[in-house]
Amino acid sequence: MNRIETRMKTLEERNEKAFITYITAGLPNYEKTKEIIKTSMEAGCDVIELGIPFSDPVADGPVIQDASFRAINNGATLAKTFEMMKEIRAEGVEQAILFMMYYNHVYHLGVENFVKACIESGVDGLIIPDLPFEEQDELKNELSKYDNAPILIQLVAPVSKQRIPMILENARGFVYCVSQMGVTGNGANFHKEIREYLENVKAVSKIPVMMGFGIRTYEDVESLVDTIDGVIVGSHFIKLLDESAYDCKVSADYIREFKSKLND
Fold first, then answer.
1. pLDDT of residue 1
2. Which pathway is recorded for this entry (predicted)?
3. Is 46 a residue of the active site?
């Protein structure tokens, strides 16, 4: 098991829900990104979803699009993010960190080179929204060559019940349930059949089920907590960081409060 799977197993043994946050790599700079990662983990964040800035995202709403734009203008790149990962691992951070990114980065670097760079820098998982399940074989085959390669996290949207078992058959880590149609950051405008959808995924999944997209507060998911194993907060966390001028105490307090309510 890698760090993500180990953390999920520990939470299951403790009967706890997972809390995952999204951070844009290199915003406002890489030193601050490292500080946010460290303080978020100390505050109780179970997995960090590190967003790799990209010019043409398909799943991100205005908040994360703007964050990526600013990070790129500040000089953020995939290569620099790999270097930051090496630094943070050398500084003793052992918690689970995954990349949320788009396939153009992988394609440009080359699948083999990309996977090796992930291993060398200590990346634990990958979320690639624009890589359909049917087109994942090339990357999966390369990842399967190494015991310490990152795991590919599967996204499941509100689709037909028949498609869910196929996507989750060999899924690892956790399944990312997209809770609304469209892009991130639309508030708690969840799919009208959100409970049935989550229950369908939960019924066939052998791994923890996470809910993400549009979540801001615990109250947004309070009525659904019994059907999920954890939540992912992205756009709201980026907005919180921006509005607090990247005050790590503010973000840490938010994590502690949300995680406490999630497991009350």
1. 77
2. Amino-acid biosynthesis; L-tryptophan biosynthesis; L-tryptophan from chorismate: step 5/5
3. no
Q: Which residues, at least 6 apart from 102, have a Cβ–Cβ distance to it below 8 Å?
A: 52, 54, 56, 57, 58, 128, 129, 130
Catalytic hit among 5, 46, 49, 229: 49
The alpha-carbon radius of gyration of the chain (Å, integer) is 17
DSSP letters for 182-206: SSS---S---TTHHHHHHHHHHH-S
pLDDT of residue 65: 86
pLDDT: is 189 or 123 the higher one? 123
Q: Which residues of 66-102 are buried (b: 16+ CB within 10 A; e: fewer)?
A: bbbbbbbeeebebeebbebbeebeeeebebbbbbbbb
How far is it, in rounded angstroms, from Cα 20 to Cα 46?
Answer: 6
Q: Decide: 89 and 63 in contact? Cβ < 8 Å.
A: no
Catalytic residue (choose from 5, 46, 60, 220) = 60
For the domain covering 3-257, report its CATH number.
3.20.20.70
**Does pTM top 0.85 for this prediction?**
yes
Looking from the CA of 65 toward its CB, the CA atoms found within 13 Å total 11
> What digits encode the pLDDT tens for the residues 60-111?
668 888 999 999 999 999 999 999 999 999 999 999 999 999 999 999 999 9
Q: Which of 14, 19, 40, 152 is nearest to 93 (CA)?
A: 40
SS3 126: strand
| Cα–Cα distance measured from residue 25 to residue 30, given in angstroms and rounded to the nearest whole number | 7
